Amino acid sequence: MNWPAGARFGRAFWFWFTFDYTVPIHVARVAAMLCHKKLLNTGERRGSGQCRTNTQFPKLLALASLIAFIALLNGNSSAQAAKLVPHTAQYQLSLAQLKMPGEAAAAGGDLAIRIERTCNRWRIMSRFQFNIDFRDADRRMHLEVAQGSEEDLSGQTLFFESHTTVNGESVLSLKGTAYLTAAGDNRAILTKPERAVLTLPKETLLPIFATRRTLDALERGVRFDSYLLFDGTNPIGPYRVSDVVGGKALALKRPPTGDAHLLNTPSWRVRSSFFEHQSVDAEPQSETVTQIHSNGIVSRVLLDIGFLVADGELVEIKSLPTPSC
Asked: For residues 14 and 117, which has the higher predicted lDDT (pLDDT)?
């Protein structure tokens, strides 16, 4: 696999997520690191003296799922594979809102996505990076998420891998394979961060099929939808995703370079909320607001990961060849 321009990883990460398996030891380690480095707060502490990272960390981890979700939207346009558009897309990211203590002196980043089709599967790769320089001289945050996945054309098998770093330190790596069967004997076998077998609910959908389903619903005028998604980002199981259509379109400031004609299609504004599958919490782990075109391309996106909201605008789009097989 060839990573999108700017990727820092020397090999491909098969990529897809539905995350929930960073288990307590990983959660505790990363939360402590972020706390001690004052990345998620400015030293504000509870009476026990513990850093207040418990509400922010899960949303940081959910970032991987959001990026996977956006790539999925870009890779699917309807239930008919002939309509899918292999392409590369580059998004420029800016800070829309900072929702943690402190003031940003500078912030921004980018998101690169590559969607390829072979004769028997889809390959999706992405790289996200975002930097925040705080006015406090000793505080800086650099987030980077690299993801890669392969899903067969039938939507029954998914190979996924991802790697997340904060300030150059690895905080989460996931790798595995998910299988769906006609009998409903669905499972995901994880090999990173440690070997585990997850039982997936019968109604679980993999990314490609889920996105086709969403876009078909949009074309039919459906305004609300809910489904279980396993995309490889959750080491515990699938997310419950709720889509709500409506609101003012998210317009681009300027047309993207490259094959801008791909955006000459109808589009919808969709808010997608991600909930832990078995959680009773009414607050989502994360949310996106996307401007989705009928060919599956996302031209604008707002990523809400709890402690910040990033605004992504499509700045370059290029179509890729489709195999003749």
From this structure: 117
Is position 10 within any domain?
no
Structural domain span for residue 190 = 23-319
Give the pLDDT score at 71. Answer: 60
H-helix or E-strand spanning residue 83: none
Query: Does residue 4 form part of some domain?
Result: no
Q: Is the pLDDT of residue 290 over 70?
A: yes
Q: Which two tokens stand for residue 231?
A: 């995309």
With CA atoms as reference, report the closest residue to 88 among 75, 79, 69: 75
DSSP state of 321: P
Residue 47 domain-assigned (yes or no): yes
Assigned domain for 238 exists: yes
Torsion angle of C-alpha atoms 104, 63, 68, 251, degrees rounded to 10: -40
Using only C-alpha atoms, the chain has a radius of gyration, in whole angstroms, of 19
> What pLDDT, on a 0 to 100 scale, did the predictor assign at position 295?
78
Predicted pLDDT of residue 6: 35
Count of domains in the chain? Answer: 1
CA-CA distance, 127 to 67, in Å (whole number)? 8
Three-state SS at 5 = coil
SS3 320: coil
Q: Tell me the CA end-to-end span of the chain in Å, nearest whole number.
A: 20
Q: Give the tens place of pLDDT for each residue, 187-212.
A: 999 999 899 999 999 999 988 788 77
CB 159 within 8 A of CB 208: no
List the Cα angle 266/239/29 in 5-degree steps: 125
> 107 forms bridges with which residues in the sheet?
132
User: Of the given ranges (4-8, 82-86, 109-113, 315-319), which has the lowest mean pLDDT?
Assistant: 4-8
| Pairing outcome for strands 157-166 and 169-179 | antiparallel
Mean pLDDT, rounded, for 212-238: 86
43 pLDDT more than 70: no
Helix (H) or strand (E) holding 24: helix 23-36
